[in-house]
Specification:
This protein is mainly alpha-helical. Helices cover about 55% and strands about 5% of the residues. The chain folds into two domains: about 70 residues, no CATH class; about 230 residues, no CATH class.
């Protein structure tokens, strides 16, 4: 059985031994005899080297490995997405409820900030509409075309099922398109500074709404990552959790990468929606609140969010297991590179009083 790279790294520290000095988990029989424990490292972080022959592990290794695999006591428990059945075929899921809450709360916060900045609230409301409409539309189209091309070939009508699948960077790209359309056709009279002022209103409140949106992803577990023993990962201790991750690996065509049931039950999986929720709530939001203590140049928060978000998302995507990759990177990683470069260009353009529209 072949192991995922991250799982293999963890399991090398926690393999069970059969008394002969040969690890008996994960590696195929033809390679088992090639792995021996290093006599120089005897903690639960023991390294393994490929050498000829083998030697018995230290007497206390079994306790160290058991302690390592028992770290599931410290990870986040798995739970199914909450839902509320109303009547007939109508069921409200936590994901949809939280996304709607993010849209409503973000819109109200933007309108309130618009009034506080002495901007036209009607114009701001129209800008929000253009941004959201184009953002959600593009989020779905990018998700289907970039991440599920195989399913799209089998079912072209998937393009019309807007409630199935959304892409974060697709939403951001669509939002930018909506902003351009608004300034081009609905507010052509605004100068460069005026456009940046309206954009900054939306950009400042966006992390607050994004936090709620990522909480929706968290409760739905719709961004699963590689297996791990990271303390903030989601535990696979329960049968429901293992059933879920097995289904994820099966759909990704990587079922053979999973370890045996006993080891799997003592591991966890990276939940990338959960990580983004934490990063936005504990990182970006406090930074924005701190920066808002004094006036900023219009356009500051647009650039600040992109510069803070893109690198984090780029790194997190290396943990994904089901996303299609092109040249070793996910579509979101390529988008992250483009967004980061665009933010740097916008920073330079802003200093030169260039227009964002």
């Amino acid at each position: 059985m072949r192991c995922l790279p991250m799982v293999r790294r963890d399991l090398r520290r926690s393999l069970q031994w059969d008394g002969s000095g040969v690890p008996s988990t994960c590696l195929p029989p033809s390679r088992m005899e090639m792995w021996v424990i290093s006599p120089h490292r005897t903690t639960r972080r023991t390294l393994y080297h490929r050498e000829a022959g083998s030697q018995p592990p230290p007497a206390h290794f079994s306790h160290a490995s058991e302690s390592f695999l028992r770290r599931d006591a410290y990870v986040i428990p798995y739970f199914r997405q909450p839902s509320l059945h109303l009547f007939g075929p109508v069921t409200v899921y936590a994901f949809g409820f939280l996304v709607a809450l993010a849209v409503i709360a973000g819109s109200k916060m933007a309108l309130a900030r618009c009034e506080r900045k002495k901007l036209d609230p009607d114009r701001c409301a129209e800008l929000i509409f253009f941004t959201l409409a184009a953002g959600f539309l593009a989020a779905h189209l990018v998700s289907v075309v970039a991440y599920f091309p195989g399913q799209l070939k089998e079912d072209p009508l998937l393009l019309l099922k807007f409630w199935e699948g959304i892409s974060s960077f697709g939403g951001i790209a669509g939002g930018v398109l909506g902003v351009w359309l608004f300034f081009r056709f609905r507010a052509p009279d605004l100068d460069a500074r005026g456009r940046w002022e309206y954009l900054d209103v939306i950009a400042f409140v966006f992390p607050f709404a994004w936090t709620v949106g990522r909480l929706a992803c968290t409760v739905a577990h719709d961004h699963p990552g590689a297996l791990t023993t990271f303390p903030l990962a989601v535990s696979l201790k329960t049968p429901e959790a293992r059933e879920y991750i097995i289904a994820v690996f099966r759909e990704a065509g990587r079922l053979a990468d999973l370890p045996g049931p006993d080891v799997l039950a003592r591991l966890a999986f990276h939940d990338l929606g959960w990580y983004e929720f934490l990063y936005t709530l504990l990182g970006i939001v406090p930074v924005f609140l701190l920066l808002d203590r004094r006036p900023r140049t219009p356009g500051f928060y647009v650039i600040a969010f992109l510069l803070l978000y893109a690198p984090a998302r780029f790194c997190l995507d290396f943990l994904r297991i089901a996303d299609v990759r092109y040249g070793g990177l996910t579509p979101a990683q390529y988008a992250g590179i483009a967004v980061f470069a665009a933010a740097l260009y916008a920073l330079r353009a802003l200093r030169g009083n260039a227009s964002p529209g």
